[in-house]
Amino acid sequence: MMAKTTPPTLTLNNGVAMPVLGLGVFQSPPAETTAAVETALADGYRLIDTAASYDNEREVGAALRSSGIDRTEMFITTKLWISDYGYEKALVGFDGCLRRLGLDYVDLFLLHQPVPTEFDGTVAAYKAIETMLSEGRARAIGVSNFSEQHLESLMRQTEVVPAVNQVELHPFFTQRPLREFHAKHGIATEAWSPLGGIQRYRPADPNAVLNAREHPTVTSIADKYGKTPAQVVLRWHVEHGVIAIPDRRARHRCPRRPGSREAQYDDVSEDSRELKSGSRRTTSILAARDRVATFVSKRYGDREPNPGPAAVVFYSCFLPTCGDCVDTGSMPSVQPWSMTSGRSSRCQGSLP
């Protein structure tokens, strides 16, 4: 019988080790969540990511208890929703998360997203989870969906630098400026929906979905090494030092043993190193970055949130014409988010 293996870890800025691959349960119906988490844990996953707003913390907790796995071997993340921002409300909200999970502590506790229009409440909530950190009820704390500006403002007013910022990040939205900011300040980058993000499950144009798993470059690399396209995309995240949490719907396309040779497939990284060193195709993508940034600037102006330059650097160009589409206005539509409500004009759900 093949032994189950667990993923490698990344050390956070406070010394806590966090698995680099895990399972996210965003949009996972409560009735299906327990079985999905049980299966993931049985397959070797140890990082499970949920949130108060997902309405499935109880089911995650049930799976943890039934797994028979020692609590110290698991890494559990949950998030505080904006309705619980403010110092006292955040303390109550945190207790609610622990109660629903049935845990004495969580490994990582995040603010789900900033509220720029009431940022004092965001800061107060973060100060509350600093208290939870000092009391040992959270092993690490951080944020989700924060921009560089939000992080700078938060860090000026609080004591603990976030250990993690969980954001949308995938080959179609690489977030390079934000990742560089994270590296400068010792903040780990975590990708929600790493196989394609909003472009995959909430596309602006249903007839023009950007799906990294179907891109010819990804599928050719997958065929070359006998891997799935999802594994290749996850390897891209690992190569960039990004923690990835594919969701329940995508997990069957991911490694069943996330710490095994099957998951590591170091030979795939040879393609990555070759292209990083300056192949012609990669150089052309880098040259297109400024034009992409110009497009984003024209589209968003000074509006919040401005996603930053949507430069795409992943083996070969994912943009149809290496940035020339910026001049024709054919870039995929990106809907602005209301950071107060967590909703776009098209979507009735919250941010992951």
Task: Describe the structure in your own words.
The structure is a single chain. With 352 residues, the chain is an alpha/beta fold. The protein has helices at 30-42, 57-66, 87-101, 119-134, 148-157, 176-185, 198-201, 216-225, 229-239, 261-264, 268-276, 280-300, 325-328; strands spanning 9-11, 17-19, 22-24, 47-49, 75-80, 108-111, 141-144, 164-168, 188-192, 243-245, 337-338, 343-344. It has an eight-stranded parallel beta sheet with strand order 3-4-5-6-7-8-9-10. The protein has a two-stranded antiparallel sheet with strand order 1-2. Strands 11-12 form a two-stranded antiparallel ribbon. Helix 5 (148-157) links the parallel strand 7 (141-144) and strand 8.
Based on CA atoms alone, the radius of gyration comes out at 20 Å
Counted up, domains total 2
Q: What's the CATH topology label of the largest domain?
A: TIM Barrel
Any idea what the CATH architecture of the largest domain is? Alpha-Beta Barrel
Mean pLDDT: 76
Number of strands: 12
Structural class, judged by helices and strands?
Answer: alpha/beta
Please write the string of helix (H) and strand (E) elements. EEEHEHEHEHEHEHEHHHEHHHHEE
- Please report the number of helical segments: 13
Strand fraction band? Answer: 5-15%
Q: How far is the N terminus from the C terminus? A: 37 Å
Order of strands in the sheet with most strands: 3-4-5-6-7-8-9-10
